[in-house]
Amino acid sequence: MGNDQAAGAALPAEKEIAPRSANDSAFDLLPKPVKVLTLNKGAEQVRRNREESKGDELWLATAYAEEDPSTDDVSIYLRIANPMPIVAELLCAVLGRSLGLPVPEPYLVKIDAGALPGSQLLAIDRPALAFASRDVGGTSFSQLLRSGSPGAQAMLMKWEHLIPVATFDEWIANQDRNLSNIIFMSNVLWIIDHAEAFHGSARGLFGLPELVGESASNILADMLVKLNAAACAAHLESAQTWLTSMAARVSIPDAAACADIEQWQTPEQQAELIDFIAQRLSLTHALLCNRLGHPQLST
User: Fold this and answer.
1) pTM surpassing 0.70?
2) How far apart are CA 75 and CA 132, in angstroms?
3) I need a labelling partner for 56 at 20 to 30 A (CA). Which of 5, 122, 221, 231 fits?
4) What percent of the chain has pLDDT over 70?
């Protein structure tokens, strides 16, 4: 969640480490409904860089499943935000996980009246509903690089999800995949924070139909530009394969239904967002080709 996760993972040993997959089990491309939890009291606000300029709040908390009291509490990062980033977080998490990408499990969290008294964004006398993701622990990849850990950059470039995640970010117009939003934990790299997907705040200025073909920042794809032409072409071929064999097989309306986004959107807004994602999918490879300097490969 953009410099949002707390640090805490042990740094890798002084050797090259190949990160393993966060989703070692098979996946079936079927979106899964987001689980609903209830917030426990005692949440702690996460103070981020430039906290005063942010329009949301991030809390480290625990929550429980009311329908199954025998289960353990879940450690979560809870985001209190306006509807637009909540919708982006929910839908991108459902899409990403259905595609086998290493996205922590998302939750809808019920907040009882008065359960989060330190929040400046919630009314203390009314219940609320918020987005959360499972706390996977770890440290951000940007912290890993700053630590001087040998092989960190090479580890990222050899990451099995590098091309799928870069392609996914291009598809969903995620303009905030900085290296603080990649989390390293026990040789697994996780991706977090999709609040700025679908062009983020630009949606309020132009509307989704006007933005469907517009490029957004994509830090992982921009890293590939530094490679030679043959390597870029090979990565673009891999991206095309992922788009046609994976992304194109996921039902976007089903993902929207599983994400439960209708609680924050009108039917018209939801239909517009689903149409944006579908149209954007058909343009993603061309956008990547233009970004990597191979526009001829987009035809």
Assistant:
1) yes
2) 10
3) 221
4) 90
